[in-house]
Design a protein that fits this description.
Layout lengths: L2 E5 L7 H15 L3 E6 L5 H6 L3 E4 L13 H10 L4 E4 L2 H11 L9 E6 L7 H4 L6 E4 L2 H10 L8 E3 L17 H10 L7 E6 L8 H13 L4 E6 L7 H13 L6 E3 L6 H6 L3 E4 L9 H8 L4 E4 L2 H10 L4 E2 L4 H15 L11 H16 L2
Helix pairs in contact: 1-14, 3-4, 8-13
Length: about 375
């Protein structure tokens, strides 16, 4: 049995945090001791109910005061007899490094650092490349790290794609009749329309202006398209939201665009969409929502870069278009709308069980178990 400590700033919400809880559960099920250190949050009760131990430390605070935790952490690692540390954020990684690097090499835990996004390239971010193994969530992110950090050897990098629970996301999933009735009542303007869904928060990076260009092109071809912008707006992004609304007003598209606001039923929304869009102007490290839509059997049209490009290359090559090429996207969707939409590949290996198994295999390899 190995003792594995995962460290994140907090356990409130988010993909990194969800992955931490998922790996922790798999560790317990595999007979290992699972420890998680964070400032706490809404996910802690779930984590502890599954058999993991949580330790509340303010290890993610971006303050010089956080470095006072270096010595206590070194003592903690000895007392808890930690075999593997997996640190998943930059500030905690600095504390871990200062504690770990001054421990005797023959007795200290094995060190894993996990990189989940395209962080700014600087010395602060570089700390996440110092692990004995560096986990990334896509080949694109691996190439980015190798290019930006020449001292990071490729053999230290382990690509472990995030996974989704294919018991909840699969082509046979259908929303409940009660949900469908409520949905149709709330959004009657979607009836008889070719529904395009652009999931994600209302931020400039998500490509909403490109989505409006695509919608306009489809309407000009006589396709009764309707665009769903499924996501909430951060209070700090209200100016962008107003700019977006002003643009669609200038185009005369208000009757053909619906803002759903923040929703907790995105799975159901994706399942009833005719096509899903992924138009991020910058490459995403992974693109979980895209994978969810593909797993539900929905055709996805996305820009061919980042983790989304990798997913489409394997699961729906017909869904790839060059970034920014809205004309190509219009032609592709116009063809799909006439009944020629392709079906994503199923089953696939981008599932939760594969992610958890490969992560635990890495831990066990490092500890010789």
């Amino acid at each position: 049995m190995a003792t594995v400590l995962q460290i994140v700033p907090a356990l409130e919400s988010g993909g990194v945090e969800r992955g931490t809880v998922e790996v922790a559960q798999a560790l317990v099920e595999a007979g290992h001791r699972s420890l998680v250190m964070s400032a706490g949050g809404r996910m802690v009760p779930e984590l502890e109910s599954q058999g993991s131990e949580h330790f509340t430390w303010p290890i993610g605070e971006k303050s010089l005061w956080t470095f006072r935790l270096v010595r206590p952490l070194r003592r903690f690692l000895r007392q808890q007899r930690v075999d593997v540390i997996d640190v998943r954020s930059r500030m905690p990684a600095w504390v871990v490094w200062l504690a770990w690097s001054r421990m005797p090499a023959v007795t200290r835990p094995r060190l894993v650092t996990s990189v989940h996004g395209f962080n700014s390239v600087n010395r602060y971010s570089e700390i996440l490349t110092r692990g004995e193994r560096v986990v990334t969530v896509s080949e694109t992110l691996k190439k980015f790290l190798i290019t930006q950090y020449p001292r990071l050897e490729a053999e230290r990098i382990e690509v472990i794609h995030r996974g989704i629970d294919t018991r909840n996301y699969h082509p046979g999933f259908e929303p409940s009749p009660s949900w469908v009735t409520e949905w149709e009542s709330a959004f009657p303007q979607l009836q008889g329309r070719y529904v395009l869904t652009l999931p994600g928060r209302i931020t400039r990076l998500k490509g909403h202006f490109d989505a409006l260009d695509i919608l306009q092109g489809l309407l000009q071809r006589g396709i009764p398209a309707h665009l769903l912008m499924a996501g909430g707006t951060d209070p700090r992004k209200q100016a962008y939201h107003r700019e977006l609304e002003g643009h669609l007003s200038q185009l005369g598209l208000e009757p053909r665009v619906t803002f759903t606001g923040q929703r907790s039923d995105l799975r159901e929304i994706l399942a009833v969409s005719d096509a899903v869009l992924s138009l991020s102007t910058q490459p995403e490290s992974f693109g979980r929502t895209t994978l969810e839509a593909l797993s539900l059997g929905r055709p996805v049209l996305g820009y061919d870069h980042g983790g989304v490009g990798e997913q489409l290359a394997e699961l729906l090559p017909e869904g790839r278009v060059p970034p920014g090429q809205t004309s190509a996207a219009i032609e592709r969707l116009a063809d799909w709308a006439t009944g020629n939409a392709p079906a994503p590949r199923w089953p696939h290996a981008w599932d939760l069980d594969t992610m958890r198994r490969r992560t635990i295999d890495l831990y066990e390899t490092l500890t010789g178990r």
